[in-house]
Amino acid sequence: MDHGAATTTTDPAATSAPLGPPLVELKDVNKHFGELHVLKDIDLTVRKGEVLVVVGPSGSGKSTLCRAINRLETIDSGEIRIDGVPLPEEGKALAKLRADVGMVFQAFNLFAHKTILENVTLGPVKVRRERSAAAKERALELLDRVGVKNQAGKMPAQLSGGQQQRVAIARALAMKPKVMLFDEPTSALDPEMINEVLDVMVALAKEGMTMIVVTHEMGFARKAANRVVFMADGQIVEEATPEEFFTAPKSARAKDFLSKILSH
Amino acid sequence: MGDFLSQFGELFATYDVPGAFWVNIQLTFWAAIFSLVLGTVLALMRISPIASLQWAGTSYVNILRNTPLTVIMTFLFLAVWTQLQITLSDDFAQNFFRFGVIGLTVYHAAFVCEAIRSGVNTVPLGQAEAARAIGLSFLPAARLIILPQAFRGAIAPLGNTLIALLKNSTVVVAVSVSTEASTLMREMIESNANFIYAIFILFALGFAVLVIPVGLLTTYLSNRLAVRR
């Protein structure tokens, strides 16, 4: 553990770090699932180097929001820009943009028929057209960084959930993404494995990676986030620094939500 | 029993039984390869994001799967060869053999497509999402991530299709392939009506000998190659 992280609730270095230009911009984004209005007039800007944590009760639209940013979910209206470029609708342009947006899923989704190493090198070799030797070297560095280098030759099913999720983070990092999306990365993990994944994410945040993290891990939010967005019923209800949000939430919905998750 | 054995002996001495089965094996071999290719293309069309391709793939499967194989063979013989006078080889027997392979291919490709699609259904949606998320477009994602896992999940139904294909290869009599097993069986019965039980057992066993290993092999492979999740 990096010293100080356990004692300070907000990391001054993270919050005071100068943020860059807008990297992810959502304007008036709306989406329906049939009758259900899951995203309502979402306006959100994430700046380069910012770590944004999205919290909210289940069904509040936070996962949909996360998935809409690399168009795994389409939107009905509004606009999403990444690094100034509107999300393309289909085809090569969309694939190219997705390569710049790292995604970590709740269910890990490692390629089940490929080894750990192949999982990490596949994108660089097949999408970025890197030479296989160079991609392999970099993949091993990344696996070392997330602490699973010694598992490189194994198949995903042979690893624990925490290890698989760390590989999934390495796989996303191998694409050298501009921004990383985390869709409830620890929700499918056994409790004892949550911290090993969060530690990797905190380290990533400290290195200046732009991150959008859907999570219920308040410890992570306090340690690494610049800003917390609280969603309920498809709307952004509240935006604040982690300190403000957790100690003095303004809206009744947020107070109610926090009382439920922090009560024991 | 001894009676049957001597009748078998006589049948084997008079007729080229292995040669007849060999024709069915050859028909099955080529039709299996071509229908695997065509069936994979059809499956890709049906899972593609493009509506017109989905529609074309679905239409093909519904039409070919619901047409009796005999009708397809008769169509090739009467319409394509007799009426349109399209020939596939100057050699008479080779010409009919190729029509037979085509008929078997277009029919079984529909079943191969559905077997592969059932394999695709064994691949969790998250695999495709992860592939798209690292920037793979539809065809590379299908080739590198979805199909390799789908084929492993489809080995058993593909094996069933292969078994059906092997037995259906006897229907090529409808395009005048006159050297295969069921034609030989008819010839034998015409000339040796007193051997009828021996003849029946001979051909039933012949197909069983060919089909049983296919079933055993596909069961073994589908366990061996199953994707661990």
TrEMBL record, chain A:
CDD domains: ABC_HisP_GlnQ (cd03262)
Predominant cellular place of this UniProt entry's protein: membrane
Subcellular location: Cell membrane
Gene3D superfamilies given in the database record: P-loop containing nucleotide triphosphate hydrolases
Pfam families in the record: ABC_tran
The keyword ATP-binding is annotated on this UniProt entry: yes
Stated name of the protein: Amino acid ABC transporter ATP-binding protein
TrEMBL record, chain B:
A Pfam family this chain is assigned to: BPD_transp_1
Membrane topology category: Multi-pass membrane protein
InterPro entries the UniProt entry points to: AA_ABC_transptr_permease_3TM (IPR010065), ArtM/GltK/GlnP/TcyL/YhdX-like (IPR043429), MetI-like (IPR000515), MetI-like_sf (IPR035906)
UniProt keyword annotations, A-Z: Amino-acid transport, Cell membrane, Membrane, Transmembrane, Transmembrane helix, Transport
Similarity field: Belongs to the binding-protein-dependent transport system permease family. HisMQ subfamily.
Transmembrane segments: 20-45, 66-84, 96-116, 195-221
Gene3D superfamilies registered for this protein in UniProt: MetI-like
PROSITE patterns, per database record: ABC_TM1
Keyword Nuclease carried by entry: no
Subcellular location: Cell membrane
Species of provenance: Isoptericola peretonis
Domain called ABC transmembrane type-1: residue spans: 21-218
Name of this chain's protein: ABC transporter permease subunit
